[in-house]
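PROTEIN FOLDING TASK:
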Amino acid sequence: MAGLAAVLAVPAFWSYEYKSLPSALLTVLVQFLVIVIVAVIAWRRTTGDIEQRAPSARTDTTGARDCRIWHTYSHVEIEAQTPNVALVANLSSHTRELANTLARQGYVVRHTNDADAMLNMIQASSAAWDFLIFDLDMSDGLQSSVDDLMVLRQTCPRLPILLISETVSRDDTSDHRRAIGDATLRKPVSENRLLAGIAAMREESAARQF
């Protein structure tokens, strides 16, 4: 192809008053130009085929967007009879303190910020859980949390529920929030108040059974 182009091009160059250049030099220049053009065309076609065949690379950011966490806290060897506590709250230093306090008391604490998943798990096997601690401040949708807890109370009436929130003015161990929980503690919750709140929660839960 290059040779043919060169043969055709030489008379053209001569016709445009390039008679001062030797025909051999013109032939070399034209051949080189044709070779470069052919190489560029072939490279572009090859690159295009590779780009069409290659699958597009996508980064899965689902986990990063959802940021769902599942942590287990335990200071004892986990056995079948070890009491499980469900802790639904956002991850924070205060949450870790609560979980570690419960772990020192011999509980296995299952902590998550995925309220729906945890509540579904409890409803599927309520007998496996000793009680639930639910942080009412973990999202802006308070009414949604209240609705979910009311459903849980209906489906798992024997499950004790301890509520925590920084929006309440004081600890409340009355039956004021019986529809969604057995006791409410104001955050931050100290170890002594947590243990007292658990005792009050159990007492209120037992009273509900009669």
Remarks:
- Residues 2-19, 47-66 have pLDDT under 50 and may be disordered.
- The first strand starts at residue 70 and ends at 73.
- The radius of gyration is 37 Å.
